From TrEMBL:
Part of the signal recognition particle protein translocation system, which is composed of SRP and FtsY. SRP is a ribonucleoprotein composed of Ffh and a 4.5S RNA molecule. SMART domains: AAA (SM00382), SRP54 (SM00962), SRP54_N (SM00963). It is an enzyme of class 3 (hydrolase). It is a peripheral membrane protein. Pfam families: SRP54 (PF00448), SRP54_N (PF02881), SRP_SPB (PF02978). This is Signal recognition particle protein. It comes from Marivita hallyeonensis.
Amino acid sequence: MFENLSERLGGVFDRLTKQGALSEDDVKTALREVRVALLEADVSLPVARDFVKAVQEKATGQAVTKSVTPGQQVVKIVHDELKHVLTGDEDPGKLKIDNPPAPILMVGLQGGGKTTTTAKIAKRLKERDGKKVLMASLDVNRPAAMEQLQILGVQIGVDTLPIVKGEDPVAIAKRAKTQASLGGYDVYMLDTAGRLSIDEELMAQVEAVRDVSNPRETLLVVDGLTGQDAVHTAENFDERIGISGVVLTRMDGDGRGGAALSMRAVTGKPIRFVGLGEKMDALETFEPDRIAGRILGMGDIVSLVEKAQQTLEVEQAERMMKRFQKGQFNMNDLKMQLEQMMKMGGMEGMLAMMPGAAKMQKQMDGAGIDDKMLRQQIALIQSMTKRERANPQILQASRKKRIAAGAGMEVSELNKLLKMQRQMSDMMKKMGKMGKGGMLKQAMK
Ligand code: GDP
């Protein structure tokens, strides 16, 4: 699917992972090559640029893990970033088909693989989800298209709406809906007509069909080999019709794969499936993790780094605990705690996981502890110097003023944060003493 890109990246990272130490220049050179490889794979320029920038930032801020080489770490960052550009919000293969009969509208240009994909998805719904599916061809321009769908239907054992000559697409869509309701179908799929290029007549027709059928899913089928053209087509269709996802076909070819990488970032729409051949089961859901792995082809390194990072996190946590027990809890520690809270979905996310949360959440709202506050507190810490973070007790009036101004907040807010840090530090100290048998001693008194 991504042979060329994969080979190119493989070359870049082979060199990088073999080196022991990496200078900033090594990373820069490698990333320049990554950028070229992406552009050659027909990834759009802004996407390639943002990609490289994100990797660069993460590579610079990354904690060094002893057991893996810096090059291996960069591979992992690139993998995660690939996954990130490919990822949509939802499970790509899960189509919205509750409330039967659920209409699925299939749109796209002629020759993109729309009819084939319609049948492939119907087969998948039937076999994997046990759904009763009806397919209807609305392509009145090419009678052969209607027959093509009918033949595929027979082949996969899925019903097609009987062909009535002379009917217009809107009438066919209405008839499909009636037939689907009467016949107890779970899903009915509308295979609209395509054109060689986007034109007003095509769009108006698809729009009319959309308005009478109210589709639960509108899937755009585009030829993945057409690279950035596929992305432009998706932008156009989404603007005019509104699409819920994309199916990229012909990904079995040795295409450059750029469409897959740009689609999400440029259109904001997820790729739901990829077509991998002419056969009826040559359809896969688009799993970002697996695809990223395939592009990079360095799964071993990725899992190696993952493991090393886990170890590092445990080591860091242990070191932190030791310091806490001595009552050492500075602004860096507080920042880490606050960030952890943000990561867990902020206060709301944490509360949602606890029983009796709704009530507590109300109280919290009253106290003003929310995501915004967490972010502000982090901003305050970020506007401190390294020395100030490690020794918050040195903060006098002028420093406080500077810090608050730097974060765009009042000194009173900063004072609250300092109080919080002191309280936590005291608490840690007490807990530390308890840990060393202090609690037992207290109980004996
Ligand atoms: P439509 O005009 O958009 O309905 O396109 P068709 O479904 O008729 O497909 C056009 C051609 O592309 C047919 O020969 C299909 O077999 C072929 N095709 C569709 N999807 C794929 C795919 O994922 N891989 C390959 N190799 N061929 C495909």
